[in-house]
Design a protein that fits this description.
It is a single chain. With 269 residues, the chain is of the alpha+beta class. Helices cover 18% and strands 31% of the residues. The strands form two sheets. It has a five-stranded mixed barrel with strand order 5-6-7-9-8. The protein has a two-stranded antiparallel sheet with strand order 2-3. Helix 3 packs across helix 4. The radius of gyration is 22 Å and the shape is globular.
């Protein structure tokens, strides 16, 4: 998956996570070497001019290409293969919202996709507000609404990269469902749930990006037992992880502040 055209902005970029994966997988994303050019060197005489060019820092586009090239097919895009998934990527609408929990500055990104065999997949990516680009409005005023009482369990689970050891009273399916509710239902009120064509009515949300390309590290990948779950929106598989980046065409990003004018909105945090 490569960037489509040149008019692309990064709505989310986690430099810390990108560098961690590059270090773990031996991917070189360091600045290019300095170059030194010698001019007017005269034989037998110690004279001349040395011109030294500073190392050029790699742009995000180049770093992303190196990461994608090195990881290759390990990054799943069509979820027809069974779990587990280590890396995932896709193209589609990404919803940005605050993760209401005891830790400040947390965000959650939600996206939905359908595999070629019809499997309905929910992807829930938890990250840092500091990695969200300013044009998405991570510090804009937002409305409140419903928040999950499972936030503490989900936070502990995420702190251990969704390992089974992080589960005290939950199993992988139930904690994944709770994470999905945080990503897609947190902030809803009865009125905003009915406004399906106005996603900015949902509390704690601050923007979305249509037709966006996303790349993520996945910690949990579960297929739900159909006989066990009866969810408001049918889902077959839930992935939980952390985003490396989200990039989007310039015209595809929406800042919900621009749609909330006239609404009674208070500032969250």
């Amino acid at each position: 998956m490569g960037e489509r055209g040149e008019s692309v902005r990064y709505a989310y970029w986690s430099d810390r996570r990108v560098r961690s994966i590059a270090d773990d997988d031996g991917i070189n994303i360091d600045p290019r070497w300095k170059t030194k050019i010698s001019l007017f060197k005269i034989p037998l005489l110690q004279t001349g001019i040395d011109l030294e060019r500073e190392a050029r820092t790699l742009q995000r586009k180049e770093i992303a290409k190196r990461i994608e090239r090195a990881i290759g097919d390990l990054a799943v895009e069509d979820f027809v293969t069974p779990p587990p998934t280590r890396y995932a990527r896709g193209i589609g609408r990404v919803e940005f919202s605050h993760f209401v929990c005891e830790e400040q500055g947390r965000v959650v990104l939600g996206m939905r996709t359908v595999a070629s065999d019809g499997t309905r997949v929910a992807v829930c990516l938890f990250g840092s507000q500091d990695s969200v680009a300013g044009f998405m409005g991570p510090r804009d005023p937002v409305a409140s609404g419903w928040s999950s009482s499972a936030m503490w369990s989900v936070t502990r689970w995420l702190a251990e990269n969704c390992a089974a050891s992080g589960l005290r009273h939950d199993d992988p399916q139930s904690i994944s469902v709770e994470a999905m509710k945080i990503a897609f239902d947190q902030g809803f009120t009865r009125e905003s749930r009915e406004a399906v064509d106005q996603p900015w009515q949902r509390g704690y949300t601050f923007g979305d990006a249509a037709d966006a390309e996303w790349f993520a590290e996945i910690y949990s990948d579960v297929v739900l037992d159909k006989d066990r779950w009866s969810l408001r929106e049918p889902v077959d598989r839930i992935l939980v992880g952390a985003p490396l980046w989200v990039r989007t065409p310039r015209a595809a990003a929406r800042r919900y502040r621009d749609f909330r004018r006239g609404m009674n909105v208070k500032r969250y945090q």
